[in-house]
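Box 3.1 — From sequence to structure: STAS domain-containing protein
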Amino acid sequence: MTDTLMPKLASVFAEGYGPARLRADALSGLTVAIVALPLSMAIAIASGVTPDRGLYTAIVGGFLVSALGGSRFQVGGPAGAFIVLVSATAARHGVEGLLLATFLSGIMLAIAGYLRLGKYIKFIPYPVTVGFTAGIAVIIFASQIGELFGLKLDGREPGPILEKLTALWAARPTFNPAAFGVAALTVAVILLLRRLRPSWPHLLIAVTVASVATALLSLPAETIGTRFGGIPRSLPVPALPSFSPDLVIAVLPDAVAFALLGAIESLLSAVVADGMTGRRHRSSMELIAQGFANVGSALFGGICVTGTIARTATNVRSGATSPVSGMLHAAFLLLFMLVAAPLASYIPLAALAGVLAVVAFNMVERPAIAALLRASRGDAAVLAVTFLLVVFRDLTEGIVVGFLLGAVLFIDRMGKAVNIREESVPRLVRAIEEAGEDGSAPERPVVADDPDTVIYRISGVFFFGAAASVGSILDRIADQRRNFVLDCTDVPLLDSTAASVIEGLVRKAERAGVRVFIAGLKPELRKLLEAHDLHAPRLTFSPGVEAAMAEIAAARPDR
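Predicted structure (token representation):
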């Protein structure tokens, strides 16, 4: 039910939607829109595009994410996590290439949703998500240093972080005290309001205060108006991105990266909303919504869309009851743009840089990092490798390598969790004596210290990660007795590698004249062994160890 391909909006309307819920959603939508207004423009500027594209993204993409999504509370829009990828794509392929990559990523996400792949995206290990989020935060902050200090660079700011820091250090003589003061004022107001008035829209208030101070004091700080000439007062006419075979091939890797990161971010955000509300989102429907949202954003000149944790959490805390809240958030943003677009020209870029600096600081999950570093060396290594690769190499490379390291760590742990031990035959014999069908002991019970039988119990998932250790033990004892019982009652799963190990055990037992019993194996796992030619008379399947021991007792020559 949780993976139904039906928007949550349809479920909400089927439940009944009245004026009381609409009022709650309208208030929540307004609150989120006030938060999203400065943030959307700041993210767009940091991504190397004009601020209006951030608003287009939040309006069009945000509306579609809520209208079509699989979460009641998800709010979509431009996200800080995409700044690195979007700015790099815009630098390599221009705005047209960026729009095409966004469009293609939307198609990929929609296809992934229709194929019901959403549940697999959530398999990304926790240390990987914490590591790449922290890495992105570092890169975002580094990208804002120039604006925070009002530095003037010769040419475009370098992409790689070490080159960026070198260029920024070389530009230190251009330090602008006014810009730094505006940024510091913005950060101070945000932190002060969070402490004293946490329910107030601190981002918008801080940007407003900084803008008023800049205008009244005639501070020599660059604004949206001086750099971009302001923002338009309406949405553009939708148009398809420029298509050409060469451009499609060129931007395809970027589109894949957009789709992968968008899927991870949106589903993580939906999981956070689930934890806050007790609801359950539909992961595949969420991917479909993200897909259509990115296609729609690209058609209107916007950038990448994803579910955003900060705005989604604000939506929940503001009392949202349904996806209507997210849809109204997009409508309020459109209203703000239509009415107050001229005022955006007065917003200092240093103020928006201050907003992003706070966002970057909040993205670093400090308690989670501390817990992972304490948990184990393996988790700490996955976290560190992911973080370092994201910061110094590439975001996608960091996720892929981190995922592979996490998978190897999991396999190692699962392999060590498999246990194989010899069982005591006397205890099992007494169980047989007490379990006679007529309530009495058999006429000739098995001798308690039967030297001809050995029993081994396997506990845990018997798979390729444990095959070597289990196989070495089985190989040593397979020809030591006349009867070998392998108790698989506590084996929930085995794979073809495990079946091959058992087949090797049976082959050796056949040469030595040892009879092999597989006890307690689940029917579906028995079919896997039979597919490997493991069936009677090569071995005997028994419902349990007691049944195997009874059959051994019945076959004794002295019975």
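Summary of the box: The chain has 23 helices and seven strands.
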